[in-house]
Amino acid sequence: MTRKHLAAAAAAALLLPLAGCGGDAGAQDDGTVTVTVGYQSKTINTVTAGTLLRSLGYFERELGELGRREGRTYKVKWQDYATGAPITAQMMAGKVDIGSMGDFPLLINAARGKQMKAPTRLVSVTGYNLRGGLNTIVTRPDSPLRSLSDLRGKRVSTSVGSAADGTLIRALQRAGIDAGKDIRKLNQQPAVGASALQSGGADALSQFVAWPGLLVFQGRAKPLYDGAALDLPTFHGVTVRERFGDQRREVVEAFLKAQIAAGGYLHHHPLEAARRVATATGLPPEVVYLYNGAGGVASFDPTLKPRLVSALKKDVPVLRSAKLIGPVDVDGFVDDSFIKRAFGSGYAKALDSTANPAPVSGTDPLTHTDVNDPATASEALTGKGSVPFATPDSLLRYLADHRVAAAYVPDAATGNRWFADKSTWVLDAGHLRPFTTPDGAAKWAARHPGSRTVSYQAALKEAKR
């Protein structure tokens, strides 16, 4: 299948199925209102509107209170999908009322809604990363590929129209590579792409959380390109059918109140939240915690921040050039009236803040200093819980003498969190600096005379000196 046909197939898939449009916003003959929520259980930066929210039962609780006030019964039907495309298809068919998906799929959602005369609205944000660190390009552990320039003529798997596809397109553009001509793009679901990478059917895989972290944690991949290098915001958000929002405004607000409560649970109990998501999805808790834990790659704040809306507008030309959408009125698609009411008086303050609501904090057990700088704060997971460290150097000294379930460090260039033992390290002026990719480490070393890259094992030995 040619690239042109792949793009056409991706666009066509979003239109199916279109039969059976819902009638009265989920109302049944007996007066019971069923609310259908489409979510992506393994896309773990949507957990506050999906997996975690479902496990906590907060939406059902809010609807129970609403039902008692109204004298009616509400039921929730949860539908799990691998990507945002089928959620959009079901929303166009009137079969999903509320859905969560990434920034590129959200734009496709808006475009399809306009095209099918079934408009949708973006009503909140789930997880976001202001630098774009939610997406990563990985290769096999034994791959000779070292940088984006090595992808010329190679087969790269991604989900066309996804946030990860957007990262791939932008990263290649910056490297002077034409994604439509210089690589062979494979349009595959994340699990299929992961299998293709293992079998040799794909040379690289560009995907969204938690796939890159999972494959690297399992030793089945290594990072080639960190999306945070783009320094462009990426996020996932909640979209609702406009008709449903108009008819059931109180239900949408109940959903967002539940989402806010789920975010509060994640912020106050990050490790417990990661374990809940791990139990529900089968993902290792160490991988979930990489993204959703304290100081994680994803920051959970439901407010519709201007920087994120601005980033969404910049995504439109990328999708249009790929012929996946036509014009999109982003300002008309974004509707903050629901989240403002659900959030209450603290909305304006939260809107202005871009600090991670759940940073790594505490006291470093080795240096006895406060852990308060996100640029260096590191963390280890042990059988007893999490242990904070003020710097990667301190964490390495601890790891040299202790076995842990996982350890996390912020990339010295991007601040993006990654596994300590999967990072590439640079010894620079007496300090050990971690990098998500070998290319990132090489670029740092080239700019800092006297520094050199070292392996993780070498970094452990160096830390003990």
Automatic annotation (TrEMBL):
It comes from the Bacteria. InterPro entries: SsuA/THI5. Residues 85-273 form the SsuA/THI5-like domain. Keywords: Signal. Residues 1-27 form the signal peptide. PANTHER family: ABC TRANSPORTER SUBSTRATE-BINDING PROTEIN (PTHR30024:SF45), ALIPHATIC SULFONATES-BINDING PROTEIN-RELATED (PTHR30024). This is Nitrate ABC transporter, periplasmic protein. The lineage of its organism: Bacteria, Bacillati, Actinomycetota, Actinomycetes, Kitasatosporales.
